[in-house]
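WP5 quarterly update. Target: PTS transporter subunit EIIC. Source organism: Halalkalibacter kiskunsagensis. Length: 524 aa.
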Amino acid sequence: MKDKLLNSMQIFARAVVIPVFYLPIVGIILALSAILTNPIIVENGGFLFNVGKFIGSGLWPILINLGIVFCVGIAMGMAKDKKGDAALVALFSYLVFLGANQHWLDLTGKLVEYQEASDLSGSGQTIILGFQVVDMGVFLGIILGVVVALVHNKFYNKEFSGAFGAYGNTKLVFILLIPILLLLAIVLSYFWPTVAMGISALAGFIDKSESIGVFIYGFLNRFLIPTGLHHLVNTPFLYSDLGGRLIVDGKEYFGAVNIFLAQLTDPSIEVFDSSAKYLQYGMVKIFGLVGAALAFYHTAKPENKTKLKAILIPAVATSVLAGITEPLEFTFLFVAPLLWLIHSVMDGLFETIAVLLGVRTHGVGGLIEFLSYNIPAGISRTRWPIYIAVGLVQLATYYVVFKFLIKKLNLKTPGREDGEVKLFTKKEYKEKMTNKSGEAGDKDSDLAAEIVQGLGGKENIESVENCFSRLRVKVTNASLVDEPILKGTGAAGVIKNGDNIQVVYGPKVNGIRNSVDKYLASLN
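Structure tokens (predicted):
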């Protein structure tokens, strides 16, 4: 039962990543558009001001309609096959629910009268794509996405013969979903208000617990990274009303990310909302892990320092600039798990310190993202210099604590292993990728073939996805996965959670995923 539950959570977490994967792009462009609409910088109503408004108007519909984004993304991510069909059926399903829910509220006399959409705030209803429905926020998309995926996976390959042949496969999925959606439209109109009260109570508890709530959030968000379940911790706070609700310029926004971006476009706001406390977990990516890397280097054996430097420099750069930490974190996660616990605790503590000092930055990613969001926002509204000051203290603390523990406990961190620190040079890699005939083959194809072999072969692979830094693979038999082979392809680590395998490659994972997809397609 435990393995089955964990497997289901892994599948869901993998699917949630798909829409989240694109949202930082939207956010950064909106942040840049905010520069063009800032009357302090550009003339109000001028050419650049209107360009900024135009860009923002094109991107905001994505963030204010996250329900449909998650519905389609989750259905596609959880679908075992025919993912495009699953996404289209999810879109249909979302529209069916909206229409049916509005009509049921009208039939039962529950529609709340309003003049402006903002008048519905606190009423339990909202406007989505022109429909007045029960206000479920992003949870509506999550629920419908999961429902669509479950029905799709069970019936997408069901065939009929004769006159009914045209209604099999994914058409049957949609047919079966219609009564389910109509029933949900009725049930959720009565059931969801109770759930909403629970969500509000939970959000209120976390908000009132202040430093304790921030610490628990920060700790879990870091500690669960090896399992891939950390997205289940941060996503609700970033994109749902668990992360807060705020009316900006007559419109209601929910989720810490949306609230931050909405305030960014309103120069009249002097200090950003406290919901930004859920956006500080990127500090360790820019500062803390740099201190950890310095500790690894200074405690390494003298003969290993040169090779260790070659490992650490690109890993640190990836963490600091892009906010992708796994290549660096996985260098010590498995060899010194105590450090991982200390790492998670210190991350939560420093997030709490930053929040207590009044920091209101957008600090979830690396340095590039940090500058893109917070420079346009301004010092007075985000207090980002305090974030940097706390970060520098975090860097020094990580260095001292990690160095002390490594020496005191004789931990076998990178460079202190009993064996040689093995790195592949470019020449060795080319030789490794040379085929048996001695002629250089297609390096991408050869690498993909080795990865597929490490995953137990084509027959053992059910699906392949990726997030920011990991290849996420559903396999039939996890015992067939060969970790040494996968690590030989450049993986920083391999995580097995039931039949869900995560192979950590860092920023290059997109190219690797494409190579694996092409290789698997060539075997058909």
